[in-house]
Amino acid sequence: INKLDFKVLITDPVDQYMIKTLQNNGLIVDYKPEISREELLKIIDQYQVLVVRSRTKVDKEIIRYGTNLKIIARAGIGLDNIDTEEASKRNIKIVYAAGASTDSAAELTIGLLLTAARKLYDSMNMAKGGIFKKIEGIELAGKTIGVIGFGRIGTKVAKVCKALDMNVIAYDVIDIKEKANMLGVKVAESLDELLKNSDVITFHVTVGKDAKPILNKDTFNYVKDNTIIINTSRAVVIDGKALLEYIDKKQLTYATDVLWNEPPKEDWEIKLLRHERVIVTTHIGAQTKEAQYRVAVVTTDNLITSLKEIGVL
Ligand code: NAD
């Protein structure tokens, strides 16, 4: 394969490191970080490599129009914006940057945890408005946090929570006993057990594009009153309409970095966004200088390895 015939299209903002490194390897790189879907459908057949972050939805249609695609690179970790099944049918390789934003996402999670526990958002808003009223929160030491998904980010969050003298229980679909034991974390035998025992619940699972909600009309029943729920993974792990119902029924607090639609568009979503016990950030889990650079480096490395494997470099 001649690398001059191999063109790379980048359709979301990435660090310059990636563009420069690919060009230094002799590849033609077109950088269109704000391209529309219509435009992408028109030109995708000219490219062998597509690089995206989370904005570009690489669904069946895009993959079908990309008749020359060999590699899709996701500069980040969640693959829920890529139809991986369709890609594998076409033998298109997927590369991504596992682990590059672990510390940043975990730190944001702790930020949301403290914000929810001490009502920092309300207090800061009041202060800015000239209202110096005291509002009461809760102390985290001695409380139990349930970590759903005990992978890279979940583990880091658990470590910090241990340092805050919280009790940590974790639930995962894979065997996590050894890792949990080492960290002094209790393993929940079932999701119900975790939900029934947690004062705070935090989500760190990976999800595919057809993922079913973990918290739904049924499982919300196990959640204790006044629980703080934190989500920096993906919105679909929670049934939003069920949350809207239970948030008042159980006086829950919901602190999240991710929404079902970003920005929200459904009525129930907007209602949730405006709810007084909902705290929302704008999907900034990986938005730090360090994580963005690391994401670019790891994705580029993995992309170059793949290009070598298929004989382009
Ligand atoms: P990881 O692969 O290291 O860990 C995920 C864990 O979840 C695995 O141990 C897996 O077995 C477990 N899991 C999968 N499905 C589960 C289920 N139904 N129930 C219980 N456990 C389940 O992933 P990670 O690097 O820790 O990332 C976790 C999540 O954080 C991903 O969804 C990722 O997209 C998200 N993320 C978000 C941001 C952000 O900007 N907010 C940044 C980075 C990562």
Question: How is this structure best described in words?
Answer:
This protein has 12 helices and 12 strands. The longest helix has 21 residues, at 289-309. The termini are close together. Strand 7, helix 8 (177-183) and strand 8 (186-187) form a beta-alpha-beta unit. By secondary structure, the chain is of the alpha/beta class. Helix content is 38%, strand content 15%. The chain has a 7-stranded parallel sheet, with helices on both faces. It has a 5-stranded parallel sheet with strand order 2-1-3-4-5. Helix 10 runs parallel beside helix 11. The chain has helices spanning 16-24, 37-43, 60-65, 84-89, 102-118, 120-128, 152-163, 177-183, 191-197, 240-249, 267-274, 289-309; strands at residues 7-10, 28-31, 49-52, 71-74, 93-96, 144-148, 167-171, 186-187, 200-203, 228-231, 253-256, 278-280. It is elongated, with a radius of gyration of 21 Å. Bound molecules: nicotinamide-adenine-dinucleotide. Residues 77-78, 101-102, 105, 148-154, 171-174, 204-207, 214, 232-234, 257-258, 283, 285-286 line the site of nicotinamide-adenine-dinucleotide.
Task: Record the SSE blueprint.
Blueprint: E1 7-10, H1 16-24, E2 28-31, H2 37-43, E3 49-52, H3 60-65, E4 71-74, H4 84-89, E5 93-96, H5 102-118, H6 120-128, E6 144-148, H7 152-163, E7 167-171, H8 177-183, E8 186-187, H9 191-197, E9 200-203, E10 228-231, H10 240-249, E11 253-256, H11 267-274, E12 278-280, H12 289-309
Parallel strand pairs: 1-2, 1-3, 3-4, 4-5, 6-7, 6-9, 7-8, 9-10, 10-11, 11-12
Helix pairs in contact: 1-12, 5-7, 10-11
Nicotinamide-adenine-dinucleotide binds next to helix 5 and helix 7.
